[in-house]
Amino acid sequence: MFNWAVFLTLVSISIPGTTISSIMLNKKSASGKREVPIIVAIILQMVFLSIFVALGVALINKINLNAENIYISSWIEAAIVGIGCSITHILIYYGFFKPLLGKAFYKIEKHRNSIGIANRILYASVVEELIFRWGILSLLLWITQSVLISIVVSSLIFTLAHYHGSSIVGKSFTLYSYIFIGNMLVGIICGWQFYDNGIFAAILVHMCFHLTLYPFEVKVLKK
User: Is residue 200 scored above 60 in pLDDT?
Assistant: First the structure.
């Protein structure tokens, strides 16, 4: 039986993020082009997201998820994992890729900062997890019956989805390598937490990732 309570809960928590995202996209729209009304943009995003949320809800009883902990089992675990994931990324990004990226490094920092921390916390962390983990990973798990394959493949899809936006700062093997490693890291960690700890755990991991990374970005841009 379709769990409407879970569906409405997950759709509801995405409203702030889709609203902020739609407002920002509206402001960044090119001059001379007809802008889509913000309310229409919000509705379209909510309809799109609802498809993935409904998919995940429909599959709750068909995949090996702990029905009693659909949302989250341990907030502390998710927070620690999220901070650890971000620190790992920081070491890889600033320690290894920074000198190799050259001018693209500062373009990445400016591009990521232009998205805004609120948008990254409320939209990227919530909406992306509902799409890629709750919806897509659940579907893959139902099809393959393999946790490992589902997490890896959904992480690959998650990574590919980030290539278009990141490619505006440049096109090089080093940049694409960073995009791949960085997003696969987040995708795999969030996928594991979703399966083992609940969808809110995946969201919290993603939030902690951005919150931990943000001060480093600000410091770099001030130089």
Answer: yes
Q: What is the pLDDT of residues 145-166, one digit of tens each?
A: 999 999 999 999 999 998 876 6
Taking only the tens place, the pLDDT of each residue in 91-116 is: 999 999 999 988 888 888 888 888 88
**Is residue 208 a contact partner of residue 79, using CB atoms and an 8 Å limit?**
yes
Identify the sign of the CA torsion 162, 166, 120, 92. Answer: positive
Domain limits for position 217: 4-222
pLDDT, tens digit, 9 for 90 and up, residues 23-34: 887 776 554 455
Query: What 8-state DSSP symbol labels residue 124?
Result: I
Q: Give the type of residue at 106.
A: Y
Q: 90-126: buried (b, 16+ CB within 10 Å) or exposed (e) per residue?
A: eeebeeebbeebeebbebbbeebeeeeeebbbbbbbb
- Return d(Cα 92, Cα 78) in angstroms, integer: 21
DSSP structure class, residue 145 = -
Q: Distance (Å, rounded) from C-alpha 110 to C-alpha 69?
A: 38
- pTM (predicted TM-score): 0.92
User: Can you read off the two tokens belonging to residue 208?
Assistant: 């902690």
Task: Evaluate whether 186 touches 85 at the Cβ level (below 8 Å).
Answer: yes
Number of domains in the chain: 1
Task: Please give the structure tokens belonging to residue 198.
Answer: 């609940």
